[in-house]
């Protein structure tokens, strides 16, 4: 039974011909979960908001209808739309910390989402709180959102969305900021609530593994268009569109050590979309016919695909997956970086309790942990940005001082740090060339021509055209910024790179290219400490892994041994909660 | 893994943001008006004395004569030509106010940046010192020093700068604080780039918006304080013409000859409004370019 029908939904930029999403049609049944997958710039968040009859400032809904059990949201007036958003459709935002008012008591906050008499509303709120697995007593309802954990906040946001018994919930990346175990619980909750209350859900995400876990059907978006839709099993196991195929090849797995295949080029930005198939510029199968006209959605199996060559491509065997070897460093004595009994604290609170690590030449050691495990503190102790620590840190046999300022210039040069946030790691007021020249001028003071030559060389090493040295960070994509940050680290000529969650802010296809770039650096003999919460990325790049839980290393060893046969309960739990396509 | 598609034609020929900021700055109507006003008032203040039809210090008619009879704005309390006095009376304000504003923003920004960047004891000591300065009522301090040392223009500039520094330091420290925690500054710390170079290269270019706004605001304050000091009689000494002093001298005749008071006030207002338009327009342009 179809409960929600979206037809021809088009959102454009106000005052221009530019469209952000184009002619999107969806259908879903009354307790069905539809996953919408896309990378940044695909228009998935615009679609999510348009489903509530809302367009962000600067955008406008141009055409289409969103029919929820007989009511077309887009034909309602402002008051009707507001009423529909209370009863028919609701929204769960990505970041619950900003979606909830941190100073408001939960009771007040939840009552805002429901009409009717206070007693009936309170009874309903208690029922929903129990359903989302939170306490429903008065003491809890008196608390404020700021006193809850991230997972609890997201449950409250979901409770607010279901409390008025809508027919459709739109969830926009609700688990992106959460730890894997919390994410697992939220996904289970969404599935259960939809079945229990017969609510249809649209789950927007960039993560194919999340879709595999939660959704009955999947819609893949690219460049503002639906490129493929179908049941989850058929889309993920037999993808018909080249983009879906490429996306799956770029995805790391916790099971095997794939070489990741990045998608070449970068996604078209809004207003810069080519005529013809939007994916043609990056597609390995594109022909002239693809570039001349936008392909229609054609039926394939139980779904639809927007590709004129899907039959032909479908007959090809799936691309072979090459497996990268794991380096065996365990018995090698040549340690580059040795950490012994490192204890770090913030004031009187000790957050790291006696960490011992060894990194050898050419080794990639992954440090895995959830938020609060102390993994970021550890990496900042190593680089000398966090100074409250005790213990010994040896870099090439030289004992390192606590703060970077007190270390020798050679030590600061040999160990380089790459930050998680590509948007913060480059000075927005310096062009790429100037940012890259900084380490050279600081460490070597070479001539101007020499600086330009070395900068161009470093850019080439990270696969960025040298002429981009003139651009400013705001003109680069996230992946390009991260590459520039890596190039800057390389220009200092380091032995050890400390990568702090360097891929977690990037799209899957961009993550693949950064991981492969780092793999190349490892092969050149660089050593690396790769801090992350993502076990799949660990599997694909690390040689050895240390699992950090509450400031202690609970398990350490070769990556395949630890991930195939985890001994520690915490590691086992972490693996069980990590979503993986090949396991599904 | 080639990145050939990375560089779209649009970005290849994109002008560098610096020149774009300047072009947008000059294209903004707000800035154009501001520049117009400031240039006009400054020119009048500096060279107006040459245009003055009469001597600004000699009585030529009856006190408080209304406009007319060859006197465009009438005469003041001693029968001197108001127009000539307005034209000749802006010199001191025209150099003292901008100088005080620039100096106070420079020193205040240095203090604020150092406090934000170094943190810890440096921050505590610097900011407490600023609080002490802030605790002195500016005008009272000015009166005290001027009555002891006499009304020298350099003393006045120093006093105004001292009065303005703490406010600037606080604003700039607040603006620089989040920049100092950004990753590119942490990176610079981690490779040991010297503090002063980090402040100048990494932090300072990122706080140009608040810096420009501060310049506009402090210019207005400086004009206000200097005009007040003249009004009270501790600034420029009669019979030299001065806008602030003219307001004070002629206030008793406000009802009979309002032009003697209004004309200098209009000049002060035009000057400060112009300065503010430029600073605020500039800050807006920068914010818009950054937001891109």
Structural notes for this entry:
The complex is a heterodimer of chains A (584) and B (292). Chain A has 584 residues and is an alpha/beta fold. In chain A, 35% of the residues lie in helices and 24% in strands. Chain A has an eight-stranded mixed sheet with strand order 6-7-8-3-9-10-12-11, with helices on both faces. A six-stranded mixed sheet of chain A has the order 18-19-20-15-21-22, sandwiched between helices. Chain A starts with a strand and ends in a 7-residue tail after the last helix. Chain B is 72% helix and 0% strand. In chain B, helix 7 (138-149) packs antiparallel against helix 8, helix 11 (208-232) packs antiparallel against helix 13 and helix 12 runs antiparallel to helix 13 (259-291). The radius of gyration of chain B is 24 Å and the shape is elongated. The A-B interface holds A 262, 264-266, 269, 272, 281-282, 383-385, 404-405, 407, 409, 412-413, 416-417, 419, 421, 424-431, 435, 438-439, 442-443, 463-465, 467-468, 470-472, 474-475, 477, 480, 485, 488, 492, 513, 516-517 and B 1-8, 10-12, 14, 16-17, 182-184, 186-193, 201-202, 205-206, 290, 292.
